[in-house]
Amino acid sequence: MKKLKYIVKASLLVIGILTTSSCEKFYDINQDPDAILEAPIDQQLTSLTVNIGFYAGSDVNRISSILVQQYSGQSSGTENLTQLYEKYQILGTDQNNAWSSMYATILNDAENIITQASSTGSPHYSGVAKILKAYAYQISVDIWGDIPFSEAQKLTENTQPKYDSSEQIYAALITLLDEGITEINAAASNKSPGINSTIYPGTFSTTRANWIKFANTLKLRLYLHYSEKDPAFAKTQIDQLVNSGAPLFASNADNFQMTFINAANAKNPIDQYSTARAGYLVANDRLVSLMNGKADPRRQFYFTQFPLGSGLYKGSVGGAPASQDYSKLHAYLRGYSGTAYTGDAPVRMLTFAEYNFIRAEAALRFSSPGVAQTFYTAGITASMQSAGVAADDITTYLAANGTLSGTPAQQLEQIITEKYIASYGVVVEPWTDWRRTGYPALTIPANAVINFLPRSLYYPQSEIDLNPNAKQKASMDVRVFWDTRQ
Question: In 10 A of CB 143, how many CB atoms?
Fold first, then answer.
């Protein structure tokens, strides 16, 4: 464990990840700011996993969680970025950081690993890199829609990649995940990941199973995204995958997450931002009210009490007067010792709770394998256990709120609402669920500058300026291919 902590801390210091502002300078997608193309494959995997973890807790985490009303940008003082995001004043320049981090760092690391691993007979490395590449592209498609894919990561060979259809990219990601699983299962590999991976660290003979479960569970997420556009396809693919006996998440130990440590420059990016810019993020009334209405025992881990010591929780809404008189983000997202924030909470990206809610929705809507009620209960339980809720409190909550009832539409709302609570702080996916299903019901802030909740984000201004294949959207009402709900 000490060695793992050293690796995490050292890698953060070396690669100099910038996590506290979307205003800091990054380079364009088609530039290689470091020009290190032959770094040892071990170090590149450390860089890749660390950067993915930071990415999932940084700019896009804040924007997507504000849009879906888990976080609120209300604070005292001069209007800041989070307040602008909450009223939907989100510009292309706000995406420069996230886009560059994704393309110039994360995806380039993945491509370099795949290339080197293929040439050195190390399929275990290329398999992991392909799975992480698929995850990175899934997140990117769900943020922006059509993006560079087939011509990306070519560096000087192609500095102006074309934009590929988001639907075609999704299909390619399934192939990429299948290739990754095959390569991870290779009987021989010159080199294999170990504790140099900050996601699923450890001896590869053990962690191999984690990577395979993650890849298969990520496929379930991808298939579920077709729920409105092509429900028959979603059902067929989910049923085939489940019936094949492919390994899937089985406990919270399988969660796809990045663990951080309580050390300078190695803390969770959500905590770093909350510390550096105190008050920029508070709990949103939509999430807090949902949980207050159910006396949800996760509140004490999710939020600070307001007033302090009252046992009460208060969220803000967009357009409300700027104030510090709200519950703040707490231990679950930041890490807490009982007296101070520690920054060692993991950034959760795909969880066992989400897996269960995927299965519950598929069973309800498509009559896919399993019983919706069973998976619904398991999803709530997994979320509460992950948050640290006591067993008796879980039992009490399930007795009052754990039974699906009503029409299929009402049961779907129950599933997505509980998934929304369980996915607190998960990058993009709660926003995706709202775009797919309309749940939970969200109200446009009173001070919003547009009259709709964004369905995708503008392309970064740096990309528009430098790539003639990039055409800016007319508005943030442009939908990702799977977003067909009226």
Answer: 22
Q: Give the separation between CA 149 and CA 166, rounded to whole angstroms.
A: 9
Record the pTM: 0.93
User: Is the Cβ–Cβ distance between 26 and 97 less than 8 Å?
Assistant: yes
Cα distance between residue 407 and residue 428, in whole Å: 28
Question: Is residue 45 within 8 Å of residue 260, measured between CB atoms?
Answer: no
Q: Hey, how many other C-beta atoms are within 10 angstroms of the C-beta on 95?
A: 24
pLDDT tens digit at each of 486 positions of the chain:
444 454 555 455 444 433 333 333 333 444 444 444 568 999 999 999 999 999 999 999 999 999 999 999 987 667 889 999 999 999 999 999 999 999 999 999 999 999 999 999 999 999 999 999 999 999 999 999 999 999 997 766 777 999 999 999 999 999 999 999 999 999 999 999 999 999 999 999 999 999 999 999 999 999 999 999 999 999 999 999 999 999 999 999 999 999 999 999 899 999 999 999 988 999 999 999 999 999 999 999 999 999 999 999 999 998 888 888 999 999 999 999 999 999 999 999 999 999 999 999 999 999 999 999 999 999 999 999 999 999 999 999 999 999 999 999 999 999 999 999 999 999 999 999 999 999 999 999 999 999 999 999 999 999 999 999 999 999 999 999 999 998
Rounded to whole angstroms, the Cα distance separating 236 from 240 reads: 6
CA-based end-to-end distance of the chain: 50
Strand, helix or coil for residue 349: strand
The number of residues in the chain equals: 486
CA-based nearest residue to 319, from 476, 88, 92: 88
Distance, CA of 268 to chain centre: 14
- The helix/strand/coil state of 308 is coil
**Helices 352-366 and 204-224: angle between axes, nearest 10 degrees:** 40
DSSP 33-49: SS---S--HHHHHHHHH
Residues 6+ apart with CB under 8 A from 86: 66, 72, 73, 74, 318, 319, 445
Distances from the Cα of 353 to the Cα of 95, 376, 379, 384, 473, angstroms: 29, 9, 4, 9, 35
2-22+37-204+249-267+432-466, what's its fold? 1.25.40
DSSP symbols for 107-146: IHHHHHHHHHHHHHT-HHHHHHHHHHHHHHHHHHHHHHSS
